[in-house]
Design a protein that fits this description.
Rossmann fold, six-stranded mixed sheet, globular, single chain
Length: about 160
């Protein structure tokens, strides 16, 4: 991981940066980096959001900490859920980049009551079947329709 200009907090097995007010009137923002990214990707975002009054949490995703057989989007999603529970967050705005976006998507599907809003940037998730797969899984129109519907909280937004 690159050095970051902000401190890393440790709570149990979780490592994360936290900036901004402790109890703002809006849900906190949780920033999820990509597979090859780290907290340094979020420096400007953390700065801007925290200065605007948001509580910002940027966890260090343990992409390389689990055994390969246990590493994947579901395990990282559980990690994020466990962090949300440990920090007693009622809901959050998830911002995910690349793999972090895929984790945010699965988290939103599994725990919609915990997601106030979501922002995805360069997210994987529609075609990939496993983390790190470099081959797109191409199927028929129905497969694409189903995957696209999974991207939205309300599947009616997925149109032809």
């Amino acid at each position: 991981m690159h050095e970051t200009p902000f401190p890393i907090h440790e709570t149990g097995s979780f490592r994360y940066n936290e900036e901004g007010p402790a109890d703002p009137p809006v849900p906190p923002v949780v920033l999820l980096h990509g597979m090859l990214g780290d907290l340094s990707n979020w420096v400007d975002t953390v700065d801007a959001l925290s200065k605007s009054g948001y509580r910002v949490l940027a966890p260090v995703l343990p992409v390389y900490d689990f055994p390969l057989s246990e590493t994947g989007v579901p395990r990282l999603t559980k990690y994020v859920h466990d962090l949300v529970e440990a920090l007693e967050l009622d809901s959050a705005v998830l911002v995910g980049n690349s793999l972090g976006g895929h984790v945010a998507l699965l988290y939103a599907l599994n725990h919609p009551e915990k997601v106030h809003a979501m922002v995805l940037s360069g997210s994987s998730g529609i075609y990939e079947t496993t983390m790190g797969s470099s081959f797109f899984r191409r199927q028929d129109r129905e497969f694409i329709k189903e995957r696209t519907e999974m991207t939205f909280y309300d599947p009616a937004h997925a149109t032809e």
